[in-house]
Amino acid sequence: MYAQFSLGIACGSTCEFNFTGSADKSLSDSYGRLHGYGEFIFYLSHGFNLRPFASLNTYNKSDFKSGAELGLAVEQEIGKDWIWELKGLYDTGQEGSYGSFRIHYMPLINDDVGLRFTVGTGAGYDYVETRGVNEYVGRISLPIKVDTSTWVVEPFIGVSDQHGQKNARTRVYAGVWVSFLY
Question: 10, 64, 89, 118: least buried by Cβ within 10 Å?
Answer without folding.
Answer: 10
